[in-house]
Automatic annotation (TrEMBL):
<protein>
    <recommendedName>
        <fullName>NAD(P)-binding protein</fullName>
    </recommendedName>
</protein>
<dbReference type="Pfam" id="PF00106">
    <property type="entry name" value="adh_short"/>
</dbReference>
<dbReference type="InterPro" id="IPR036291">
    <property type="entry name" value="NAD(P)-bd_dom_sf"/>
</dbReference>
<comment type="similarity">
    <text>Belongs to the short-chain dehydrogenases/reductases (SDR) family.</text>
</comment>
<dbReference type="GO" id="GO:0016491">
    <property type="term" value="F:oxidoreductase activity"/>
</dbReference>
<keyword id="KW-0560">Oxidoreductase</keyword>
<dbReference type="InterPro" id="IPR002347">
    <property type="entry name" value="SDR_fam"/>
</dbReference>
């Protein structure tokens, strides 16, 4: 099995996912991150589990579309990467101060959604090669969160450039995490019938990871009240990656819910306290697809 994971830096959910996968002896793990220095501890941990696993590091800044396109080109052109069975779009930024990327997009929306939109498009041939070989588990996993309930897509101003004074870190995070789920809905509509590739989104749980680096007491109190009902329930990183692993690997998922899209605690759910109905809306999924194409300046065609 060949698996690509974005954002697998030390201590995070992506790293633990990669390390856990190492126990299953995959043929190849492709780790996409900002720099080798950030990813090397994860590579070392993988090889501590199984030194025979092939690991490829691909440098990419998910907030820069040019960086993502260059990384995707390297993946597609690499003859040793014959196929990708599972793509795990994991990288994200959470509740950061207002910042625009080099392309002029709000940082959270760009990193969690637009970067993955472009990456998925450009490496799709490698995923289709897996599906075309009759492999039963070719999947695209978009790591969302309970944060999707915090806010929907700002259709007329997703990057707050028209009204920057309206920026609130958790609302912008909600937009980014809603986009992860809507992207999943749209991918299934386009890919499942034609290629057999399935896409799932998920909430891994509340976990203390480096993703919390922008957190302060005020932001922590706000998120606790808005989505945790006053009580912060935390998982370990190992517990947190369990839902990602099930979404990526378990062949029983299709039997449990043929139209299932979103998982929490390793189970399909449509509980509105976990996944907002707007995040599963097919019309909004199509609208986001069109908006994303417009923003990145290229069509995502099969």
């Amino acid at each position: 099995m060949s698996v690509l994971i974005t954002g697998p830096s030390e201590g995070g959910l992506g790293a633990e996912t990669a390390i856990s996968l190492a126990h299953a002896n995959p043929a190849l793990l492709i780790l996409v991150g900002r720099s080798l220095s950030k990813i090397q501890p994860t590579i070392d941990a993988i090889h501590a589990v199984n030194p025979s696993i092939a690991v490829k590091f691909i440098a990419a800044d998910l907030s820069s579309l040019n960086s993502v396109r260059e990384a995707a080109r390297k993946i597609v052109d690499d003859a040793s990467i014959t196929h990708i069975d599972v793509l795990i779009n994991n990288a994200a930024v959470m509740a950061c101060p207002y910042e625009l990327t080099v392309d002029g997009f709000e940082m959270q929306f760009a990193t969690a959604h637009l970067g993955h939109f472009v990456l998925t498009k450009h490496i799709l041939p490698k995923l289709r090669a897996s599906a075309g070989a009759g492999k039963p588990q070719t999947r695209i996993i978009n790591v969302s969160s309970l944060g999707n309930t915090l806010g929907g897509i700002r259709w007329d101003d997703p990057s707050y450039t028209k009204r920057p004074e309206e920026y609130k870190p958790w609302d912008a995070y909600g937009q980014a995490k809603t986009a992860n789920v809507l992207f999943t809905v749209a991918l299934n509509k386009r890919l499942l019938a034609k290629t057999g590739i399935r896409s799932y989104a998920l909430h891994p749980g509340g976990i203390y990871t480096p993703l919390l680096r922008h957190m302060n007491d005020e932001l922590m109190e706000e998120i606790t009240q808005r989505v945790m009902k006053g009580e912060m329930q935390l998982k370990t990183v190992q517990q947190g990656c369990a839902t990602t692993l099930r979404a990526a690997l378990d062949p029983e998922l299709e039997k449990e819910g043929e139209d299932g899209v979103f998982l929490s605690d390793c189970q399909f759910t449509k509980d509105p306290e976990l996944v907002a109905p707007r995040a599963l809306d097919e019309e909004d999924a199509e609208r986001l697809w069109g908006l994303s194409e417009e923003l990145v300046g290229e069509k995502f065609e099969l």
